[in-house]
UniProtKB/TrEMBL annotation:
Assigned EC number: 2.7.13.3
Keyword annotations of the record: Kinase, Phosphoprotein, Transferase
CDD domains documented for this protein: HisKA, PAS
Pfam family, one: HATPase_c
Catalytic activity of the protein: ATP + protein L-histidine = ADP + protein N-phospho-L-histidine
InterPro entries, sorted: CheY-like_superfamily (IPR011006), HATPase_C_sf (IPR036890), HATPase_dom (IPR003594), His_kinase_dom (IPR005467), HisK_dim/P_dom (IPR003661), HisK_dim/P_sf (IPR036097), PAC (IPR001610), PAS (IPR000014)
Source organism per UniProt: Caballeronia ptereochthonis
Modification sites for 4-aspartylphosphate: D445
Name of the protein in question: histidine kinase
Domain Response regulatory: 395-509
Record has Transferase as a keyword: yes
Residue ranges constituting the Histidine kinase domain according to the UniProt record: 161-380
Amino acid sequence: MGDIEKRPHGVSETEEQFRLLVQGVTDYAIFMLSPTGMVTSWNPGAERIKGYSNAEILGQHFSRFYTDEDRAAGAPALTLATAARDGRVEREGWRVRKDGSRFWAHVVVDAIRDETGALVGFAKITRDITERKEAAAALEKANAALFQAQKMEAIGRLTGGVAHDFNNLLAVLSNGLQVLAMQSRTPLDMKMIEGMRRAIDRGASLTQQLLSFARQQPLQADVYDLNALIREFDPMLARAGDRTTHCELRLHSGRALALVDAARFEAALLNLVVNAIDAMPDGGAVTISTNIIDSDREVTATLPAGRYVHISVADTGAGMSHDVLAQAFEPFFTTKPAGKGTGLGLSQVYGFITQSGGDVTISSEEGRGTCVDLYLPSAEANEGVSIPAPSRTERVLLVEDEPDVLGLASELFRSIGYEVVAASSASEAAAILKDRSDIDVVFSDITMPHGISGIELARLVRSDHPKVKVVLTSGYPLAALRAQHGTLHEFAFVHKPYRLADLAKALRG
């Protein structure tokens, strides 16, 4: 009897239990609206989520929970109209608390009708799912970053393989031309040979650009103060512009030490500045800035927490669309007219920075300019790398599995005074070394499709024939080969396609 006496007059036991249930819920905002959208009831969950007390909100229109943009678009009225027509409406969107902060809400509105079917109001349930939305957004961002990294890795591997094979073709042409040049006498012959040589040089330059993107370009890295490098290179950067554009430096006050190949860092910087100037046909400013980042959380999608030198190149140009931005690092992608660009500028920057242990990001908005951010691991002053010295010899055991390369390379070696013993595989070369004691140097390609590799042959020579010197060659760069085979500092290395001067230096230097 006591419970019945405490119950409001005219309220059944079921209604009272429902009221107590609603009032006990704090994770959901549960409240009633009049047919015109006025708040007529308010539970503690609504007060916790939205910030209004019962006294503050009763009699107020529910549209105050919507953003200005949604109110201007008529979203509150549309919600009630849809619920009245269909009986129920479910939405997700931004809502506004009393203090002005926003949260992502899941909302359900049910129409309430009496026994005659007349609309008497709405029941509204709101849940704060901001954390779930943020987690979903973070997962989507991580998946997008993973997809981009996998795509760039796949393109890099394909590009590196194509560049290696192309280098072999260029080696055949280059070696053949050099042999022909020694035999030709007429000015016309020499003019034609020189034209072909320039074409081969351009092809070799293209493969170096591709290998740079594929992170397979040999780097001559040392510790440099990037601020000093940029200041010294500033006159060259300034000449890249014209009367309507100018370059500004905003460099960190201290030293910005990083382990880099100085020449390639300058080339990357020039690439970015030239791109920025091209994006400002009506003039503008390119700003190069540096600072030191010491972060206890990941710096980019691929860089963990740590200390980094941050270099940014920002312009006030046309900016990029979302679709262009997504492809900006891909080799041969360009928005420039035919003949105005190779599409390898940003891909070279990407390859060089990532091969140096860093990362590159781009932010851009159409009509508001572009900013390219480079991140390189901060270095100490005593870090550095060593460069192996070439070897010298009189008699060469030439090991090459490509018949065309083997034949022309043999002629090239003979043309500079060396006796050549040819072998088409590393296994054949090992057998020759067992039978002959007059070999002074082994000149071998590293990659062999059958039997032992050139690396294994080199180590066999070092172990069983310590007086025989070894020079290795490959279309793949030294950095990639070291990653696959371990340190190769004990052997001289010549990159394909090699020229006469390269061979002379390696063999006689």
